[in-house]
Amino acid sequence: MKKEFVVIGLGRFGGSIVGELISQGAHVMAIDHSSDRVDEFASIATQAVVANSTDEAVLKSLGIRNFEHVIVAIGEDIQASILTTIILKEIGVEKITVKAQNDYHEKVLRKIGADFVVHPERDMGIRIANNMLSNTVLDYLELSDEHSIMELKANDNIAGNSMIDLDIRAKYGITIVGIKRGTEIIVSPQADDKIQLGDIMLVIGADADINRFVKKAM
Ligand code: ADP
Question: Which residue range is the domain that position 10 belongs to?
Answer without folding.
Answer: 4-119
